[in-house]
Description:
By secondary structure, this protein is of the alpha+beta class. It has three domains: 13-84, Thrombin, subunit H (Beta Barrel); 90-183, Pdz3 Domain; 199-289, Pdz3 Domain, CATH 2.30.42.10. Helices cover 19% and strands 33% of the residues. The strands form four sheets. Strands 7, 8, 9, 10, 11 and 12 form a six-stranded antiparallel β-sheet that branches. The chain is globular. The chain starts with 12 loop residues before the first strand and ends with a strand.
Amino acid sequence: PFGLSHTVTSGIVSAKGRVIGAGPYDNFIQTDASINPGNSGGPLYNMKGEVVGINTAIIPYGQGIGFAIPIDTAKPLIPQLVSKGEVTRGYLGVGIQPLTPELAKSLKLEESKGALVSDVTPASPAAKAGIQAGDVIVSFDKKAVEDARALSALVAETPVGQEAAVTIFRNGQKQVLPVVVGKFPSEKSEEESSTLPSQGKWGLQLQDLTPQMAGRLGMKAGQGVMVAGIQNGTPAARAGIHQGDVILEMNRQPVHSVEEARQLVAKAGEKDPLLLLVKRDRGNFFIALTL
């Protein structure tokens, strides 16, 4: 952090299983060890020197509140990253919510365990399997579903194309439905990803912000474009742009779509810097890309 290499800070684990609104797979270790800009991706390790987490986020307006991805969550993803350069997550196609004691009672359930289905995406794996809004999922692939967050994690780690048994309660009756897990729709193949022209020159791979993506970021759809990938050794990589950043402007012109980004890049001079306004986490900043 701040250009100081080989920095070690100390602290304690303040809590486990933290939900911070980062997405459907929230499950963070909270620590009071100092985490600063530049620490992201660094290890969180115990007194034995064993890596127990990957430093990921902080609350900028607080002190001593940092978060790390548990190593047990990260390790299963490493083979995918090594072999394919990306993570493919399983997809069910349901909107879910926590099952409160009041809801459980109204649904004629004895306990408030499981995930309540509030919505089913048309033509999704869940829809094809016959899952309906109002169903309560209590088991997935023979693993108990304690709550909504547990279901998200179980589905995400299931290989695409695998059939899983989903145990539900509907109208107080237990049913088991077979479902074939799909691929999470926001994960595009390399051929489907929208890229800027001359990707080898700038190294930016972009995609339009969907309403779901924008909602998670506290933004409106069409308010910028998402950085879906960075090519190593390019101006974007050297400038420090990260995957997941949102580009709001190019050369002081608002960007609403990948197509607009293409047009703005085409207008830029071959030898002129490309000035970007970038949103990352809770702040905006400018970056100039130069060849």
